[in-house]
Design goal:
Helix content is 31%, strand content 24%. With 668 residues, it is of the alpha/beta class. Bound molecules: 5'-O-[(S)-butoxy(hydroxy)phosphoryl]adenosine. CoA binds at residues 193-196, 319.
């Protein structure tokens, strides 16, 4: 989103108080929760943690040696036990835990008792394969119940999962498996997407066999995806390495005691893009993560016993971890999971799902909302959406037009919207309205969740009471990342060095900069004190709510034999928020054809996955660089978005930029 659009956002004066009827029944309707949390944040978080089941209570709530935090020290618990076993004593035993619909229309449902049995069998099977506490398991699956089951089975036996989004390429999968030294891979023959089959097992085979493969992988568990009783098929099983899930898991015992885990034991690793070409393995541990995932799910979504909660995120992203699996199941909720695309078989699919399952809470992304807007409200009018009572948004800033459309057409004007800001690294929601308390403004994530200390700071750490600056988190929070797998230096440098050596804050509210977290986002604060998160200020793109590093795409581009040099920037895009715009210099003597562009673009998809496919590729004889040789991405962005050029005086060759801009405009 450009600065100009952003300034007009701040003039947004439509406000929406919680509807009286909603507030009257809300779990939280008293704004005093904020002051109570502020009075003693550790006691407040300990209060939340006590709502979980601990086999041994903690001795200390927090130990904070920046940048290393440890929460609920000495406490023992198991995340899967908290999501399943703990609900089996009362009426939740027979309550629906998971409702699932495949893209072709096949349906499955699990009560808590049934899900517990499935997870226990899967956990026994993993144990029989020699997997246990301290191991890593890679999960590469479509959106089928087994994705959640596999995650919880790992958690049950104390193995950390590393879920790799099914849209990532074989090579991305291989890199992630190798970085984490995963011993086991869980995948499926295929999944459905827009009528076609995504051949995951084939990609997995490629990951495991080509270019050095994955030496740490011992076994591959393969789930057979069925439709109408017939397997999707297509999986070629490798003798001695590959095992069918249904053969191993169905035969396994449903009696599998949960491993007692330390609060700070690793629960999972999830890879996300940063400013270098190599994705970061974000580490989340057990007690603190589960506490905040649980707390935020309950309060932000005002979760009640009879809700049907639908989070549309894929389990391959953090939203799928915290708000499809751990948060809602820890709350004993009924969760809907859908496998496929929103326009399969037609553009009414989401609304049909809401009608069929009587969904009460919907959590989705601005990019989806913008697509729905484009498709038109007539698709919604064919269905009964009256069951909905609360809407959520996540992944990128939501533009006020999309917010209003969501409010009017999906929410029927009666549902509060919670625009939730957080990241893979924060593990759980950080800035958000509380639907029974907060007056919302379209486009603003409003205020920090109770107990979270967010701020907007200048480059030197001064508190900015109103206006723009760097988003900062000034106090440790339970679900914070504990590190980057295998790279403590990068952890420190990426998140904790922005204000190192500075004094952060103002007046009598200051602190050393060492303990202040930098999320990589720019933000502004309005007169109400509300936060408006503008977007990344680093070389990270947000394409359709997915994080992609410019360097990752650049490495994929220069990996093509025809490419000498490449630069990638994010370009404002009507639906996706940002799109990948690539500038490419070909090797000497090569013909800059349209066909070669397609080839280069396909190469990026092969290297990373379809989410990284460049929207535009522009050939250029040279890239604009500073005299010290750094590519001037800001200028390229100006060109890609058709703006007048900024200052080019520090450029090695200003004519390069003028030429590029002309070329870009000629392309349209
Ligand atoms: C980045 C994190 C949070 C789970 C999904 C994405 C952007 C996320 C919002 C929001 C403005 C947002 C930020 C953030 N972002 N939610 N409500 N308003 N920006 O997780 O892939 O780790 O990406 O997404 O730029 O840093 P992620």
């Amino acid at each position: 989103m450009s600065e100009n659009t952003f300034d007009s956002l701040l003039q947004e004066d439509r406000t929406f108080a919680p509807p009286a009827e909603f507030a009257a029944r809300a779990l939280v309707s008293d704004p005093d929760v904020y002051a109570r949390a502020e009075a003693d944040p550790e006691a407040y978080w300990a209060g939340w943690a006590r709502e979980l089941h601990w086999s041994k209570p903690w001795d200390q709530v927090l130990e904070w040696n920046p940048p290393q935090a440890r929460w609920f020290l000495g406490g023992k618990l198991n995340a899967a036990y908290n999501c399943l076993d703990r609900h089996l004593d009362g009426p939740r035993r027979t309550k629906t835990a998971l409702l699932w619909e495949g893209e072709p229309g096949d349906r499955r449902a699990f009560t808590y008792e049934e899900l517990h049995a499935e997870v226990s069998r899967a956990a026994s099977a993993l144990r029989s394969l020699g997997i246990g506490k301290g191991d890593r398991v890679a999960i590469y699956l479509p959106m089928i119940p087994e994705a959640a089951i596999a995650m919880l089975a790992c958690a049950r036996i104390g193995a950390a999962h590393s879920v790799v989004f099914g849209g990532f390429s074989a090579e991305s999968l291989r890199d992630r498996i190798n970085d984490a030294d995963a011993r086991l891979l869980i995948t499926a023959d295929g999944g459905y997407r827009r009528g076609g089959i995504v051949p995951l097992k084939r990609a997995a085979d490629e990951a495991l066999t080509e270019e050095g493969g994955c030496p740490s992988i011992e076994k591959v568990l393969v789930i057979q995806r069925h439709v109408d009783g017939a397997p999707v098929g297509g999986a070629v099983m490798t003798e001695g390495r590959d095992l069918w899930w249904h053969e191993v898991v169905d035969a396994a015992s449903a009696d599998c005691p949960a491993e007692e885990m330390d609060s700070e034991d690793l629960l999972y690793i999830l890879y996300t893009s940063g400013t270098t070409g190599k994705p970061k393995g974000i580490m989340h541990t057990t007690g603190g993560y589960l506490t905040q995932a649980y707390a935020t799910t309950k309060w932000v979504f005002d979760l009640k016993e009879d809700d049907v909660y639908w989070c549309t995120a894929d389990v391959g992203w953090v939203t799928g971890h915290s708000y499809l699996v751990y948060g809602p199941l820890a709350n004993g909720a009924t969760v809907l999971m859908y496998e496929g695309a929103p326009d399969a078989p037609d553009r009414g699919r989401f609304w049909k799902l809401i009608q069929d399952y009587r969904v009460t809470i919907l959590y989705t992304a601005p990019t989806a909302i913008r697509a729905f807007m484009k498709w038109g409200a007539e698709w919604l009018r064919k269905y009964d959406l009256s069951s909905l009572r609360l809407l959520g948004s996540v992944g990128e800033p939501i533009n006020p037009e999309a917010w209003m459309w969501y409010h009017e057409h999906v929410g029927g004007g009666r549902c509060p919207i919670v625009d939730t800001w957080w990241q893979t690294e924060t593990g759980a929601i950080m800035i958000t309205p509380l639907p029974g308390v907060t007056e919302t403004v379209p486009g603003s994530a409003t205020t920090p969740f109770p107990g979270i200390r967010a701020d907007i700071l200048s480059l030197h750490g001064e508190h900015i009471p109103a206006g723009g600056g760097f988003l900062a988190i000034r106090r440790p929070w339970p679900s914070m990342l504990r590190g980057i797998w295998g790279d403590p230096v990068r952890f420190q440098e990426t998140y904790w060095s922005k204000w190192q050596g500075e004094t952060v804050g103002s007046g009598d509210d200051t602190q050393p900069g060492e303990g202040v977290y930098f999320p990589g986002d720019g933000a502004k604060r309005d007169e109400r004190g509300y936060f408006w998160v503008i977007g990344r200020i680093d070389d990270v793109l947000n394409v359709a709510g997915h994080r992609i590093g410019t360097m990752e795409v650049e490495s994929a581009l220069v990996d093509h034999p025809a490419v000498a040099e490449a630069a990638v920037v994010g370009k404002a895009h009507e639906l996706k928020g940002q799109a990948v715009a690539a500038f490419v210099t070909l090797k000497e003597g090569l013909e800059p054809t349209e066909e070669l562009k397609r080839e280069i673009s396909d190469h990026v998809v092969r290297k990373i996955g379809a989410i990284a496919r460049p929207d535009t590729i522009l050939y250029t004889a040279d890239l604009p660089k500073t005299r010290s040789g750094k590519i001037m991405r800001r200028l390229l962005k100006d060109i890609a978005e058709g703006r007048t050029l900024g200052d080019t005086t520090t450029l090695a060759d200003p004519s390069v930029v003028a030429q590029l801009k002309d070329d870009y405009e000629a392309k349209g």
